[in-house]
């Protein structure tokens, strides 16, 4: 472990992060909402702590190796989330304790989008902007994590993407590759954000709302500046724009990168995960629409828009809403929450287990059946033109099983803390899948649950966002052995 | 596919099965309960159908191969369950339709123990005896299935047990091995049943109840002759006897076989699955006891007995009850239902995913983490002294994932049919794990759900009992290709 180097990096990250307190500070000044103090304090505390960590190690040099990578990634989200909670804690939000501030900050940076705040519409603009910005920054982190870092660390079968990752060189040194990849992806991310903000603005949002919602849309975040979420605008054009950008943001950013570089849509056409992703959304949206028409009594066009919007929102794990979907025929919300377990594509800002892993599980399940019928034959698994190694397959299985077991452990903890089964189930699903809204007591927000449950769910968000294993390895003695 | 041979076997099975209608017929005569007619009709219909299938194929000879094995196993449970439903359908049970009769029969033969009957205490003795006997017969079938057939078919990693299976020869011919193994195991099963019946009788049950409950105890079935289940007797000695025999029946019968043959308890001591099995029961029982003491307000000794009884009953997937445990602090019933997913040991009459598979998943999960930390090292997985092949590991992963996915599909179907989430969750868990009692609307019995849900749950029981894949292969076109 290169402890000194890692602390140095953490210091730099905190100093950079402190700068992100400046835009909300500016918003506070522009709107004169009186919320500036909290962000100035947050800025100073983060900057000074960063300097404090960095300066004594100014001259430390070295290369991060794979094992250090796990620690840096976990610290990135955990430490920035904790420092990100400071301005929220210092803001004058009603009944806002430490557990609330940390929950909200984790929910922002992990792009989960679950909130403990009631009465968003009455908050200072600076706080609203800050929450949206946390999601956008989290999304930037995730794209680099998902496209550049996880494949290198080999988490849950993501070594599958090693060869395809954009970036200059392929070796075990982490830094140069990540820097190159990150830059390319961030341009795409920024471009999508600007396009999304312009579209929202053109469709009738205020500039403030347009920017804020573009942040949480491309980040698959789901935070809104209104308690009613996208439903506040009551504008089907905005809903359609939202649908389009959620779908785009749930796609592997490597595909966007390849498409932009080659000015061609061939990369999408060739990608098996992309097709399955669209297929799942299509089938689920159709089922939801039919249920809304035949059981919910809605007209077809209203049901189709509502069905498509919420399917895309939940299946990509964004978590926006235009209706209180938890009151729909109970089959629908549960189906949607199941879809959120599948989640977005690998290499996107979406959460969940990821479409590619389900595709691999399905293919491997089919192979197991073939093996039973033809016990002496040998079958390979292909995705597109790639033949999968047994290593990747086992990693995907391991990922899935660990995800499920961890899910049930979290659910039991919440139930032991007094939540009912529906609430516990949906809360853990919504947090581990980085989805956001749940059912039962957490359908509207998470304000009503205990502090313990908030802490547990904050950890669940982190586990989900870091694809379980990045965080889980840190709990093994083997990891800390030199 | 050797269709003629398979139909011939089915004919023989039906003729043998028809004989099992004779004991309840005798019970009807002894108690003069007027229920004899239904069993006489059941006897005749099964016998005649059996003859009708068998006689034209009297001279058909051949050897069953692996692929035929799947079909015979599925037909064994499906067809016998359907014919087993006949006397129940013909009996004078109130409001008992076709779906009810089939559900009850499937529940019996798969040793699930879920019932759609309200008012067991008022039923004719012959019907009560028949239900208990169905479970006992199902248990006989399962032992042979689990110890002799599944390892040979290689279902869900059970090829692990190929070398250990007792029986004369090892080759691909199914019949001679199974016959030898079956005989040895049935002696043990019969011995356990007699011991259990004598113990119950000595502790105060009537002979009728002692025999009936011994049947459903060693079969891990859970049917009772009373609505209050074991709680009816209100006798802690009976509860302790029940605990002991449930634990014994949840152990791999190969171990019992080896122990009896060698007159030694070494086989248990050497078996890793056995230790984990006892460990899980111990830990869960402790947690349940503590919750009952501190949240439920029970005295320690009462809580310990209640906790141990229900932990053993649910974790082994028996499904007996002495209290209405669904009203305990909700954490407890959900924890117990999660434990039923782990279930009994492989090669036992217990249901669920089986302890050995969870042990393998845990070891493989730990290996995945080690691989992340040491990407270039190579790790083997051992169980006891056996090194596992990648084939077995993948089969276990495939089993687990398919189990989970199928679980959620069944749950969605039930919710689409109108069940609430808690009921649907617990009903599918209770049926797929061959457990029996659920929560919510199905805590006491399954009488209140729709016919469609009953049919779906009957199929779920069959999927669970046949370890998913035995049934699933039949749904692939590849299986039917010659
Ligand atoms: K989200
Ligand atoms: K049972």
From TrEMBL, chains A, B:
Output the superkingdom of the source species: Bacteria
Q: Which molecular-function annotation in GO is an example for this chain?
A: potassium:chloride symporter activity
Gene Ontology annotations for the cellular component aspect, listed alphabetically: plasma membrane
* Subcellular location field: Cell inner membrane
Which residues are noted in the entry as K(+)-binding?
111-112, 220-221, 317-318, 434-435
Tell me the keywords, alphabetical order: Cell inner membrane, Cell membrane, Ion transport, Membrane, Metal-binding, Potassium, Potassium transport, Transmembrane, Transmembrane helix, Transport
Tell me what topology the record assigns in the membrane: Multi-pass membrane protein
Residues annotated as coiled-coil are none
Transmembrane regions: 12-32, 38-57, 69-90, 136-163, 184-203, 238-264, 276-298, 330-353, 395-416, 455-475
**Protein family membership:** Belongs to the TrkH potassium transport family.
Q: What is this protein called?
A: Trk system potassium uptake protein
Q: Which organism is it from?
A: Aliikangiella marina
């Amino acid at each position: 472990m290169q402890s000194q180097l890692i602390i140095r990096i953490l210091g730099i990250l905190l100093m950079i992060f402190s700068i992100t307190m400046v835009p909300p500070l500016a918003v506070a000044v522009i709107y004169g909402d009186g919320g500036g103090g909290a962000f100035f304090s947050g800025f100073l505390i983060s900057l000074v702590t960063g300097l404090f960590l960095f300066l004594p190690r100014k001259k430390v040099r070295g290369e991060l190796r794979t094992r250090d990578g796990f620690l840096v990634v976990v610290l990135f989200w955990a430490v920035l989330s904790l420092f990100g909670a400071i301005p929220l804690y210092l803001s004058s939000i009603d009944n806002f304790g430490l557990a609330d501030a940390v929950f909200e900050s984790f929910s922002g940076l992990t792009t989960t989008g679950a909130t403990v705040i009631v009465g968003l519409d009455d908050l200072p603009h600076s706080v609203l902007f800050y929450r949206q910005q946390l999601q956008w920054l989290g999304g930037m982190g995730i794209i680099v994590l998902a496209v550049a870092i996880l494949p290198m660390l080999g988490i849950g079968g993501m070594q599958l993407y090693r060869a395809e990752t954009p970036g200059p060189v392929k070796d075990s040194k982490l830094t140069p590759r990540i820097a190159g990849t990150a830059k390319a992806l961030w341009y795409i991310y920024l471009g999508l954000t600007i396009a999304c903000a312009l579209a929202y603005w053109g469709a009738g949002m205020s500039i403030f709302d347009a920017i804020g919602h573009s942040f949480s849309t491309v980040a698959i975040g789901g935070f809104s500046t209104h308690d009613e979420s996208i439903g506040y605008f009551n504008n089907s054009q905005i809903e359609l724009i939202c649908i389009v950008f959620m779908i785009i943001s749930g796609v592997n950013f490597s595909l966007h990168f390849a498409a932009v570089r080659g000015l061609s849509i061939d990369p999408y056409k060739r990608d098996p995960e992309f097709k399955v992703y669209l297929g799942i959304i299509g089938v689920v949206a159709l089922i939801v629409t039919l249920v809304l028409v035949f059981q919910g009594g809605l007209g077809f066009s209203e049901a189709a828009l509502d069905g498509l919007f919420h399917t895309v929102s939940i299946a990509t794990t964004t978590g926006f809403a235009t209706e209180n979907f938890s009151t729909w025929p109970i089959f629908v919300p549960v189906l949607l929450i199941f879809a959120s377990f599948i989640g977005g594509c690998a290499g996107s800002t979406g959460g969940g287990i990821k479409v590619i892993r389900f595709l691999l599980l399905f293919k491997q399940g089919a192979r197991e059946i073939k093996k039973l019928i033809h016990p002496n034959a040998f079958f390979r698994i292909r995705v597109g033109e790639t033949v999968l190694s047994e290593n990747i397959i086992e990693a995907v299985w391991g990922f899935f099983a660990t995800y499920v077991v961890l899910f049930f452990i979290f659910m039991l903890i919440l139930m032991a803390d007094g939540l009912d089964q529906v609430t516990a189930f949906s809360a853990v699903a919504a947090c581990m899948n980085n989805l956001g809204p749940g059912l039962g007591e957490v359908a509207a927000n998470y304000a009503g649950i205990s502090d313990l449950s908030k802490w547990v769910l904050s950890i669940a968000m982190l586990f989900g966002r870091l694809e379980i294993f990045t965080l889980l390895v840190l709990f093994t003695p083997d990891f800390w052995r030199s």
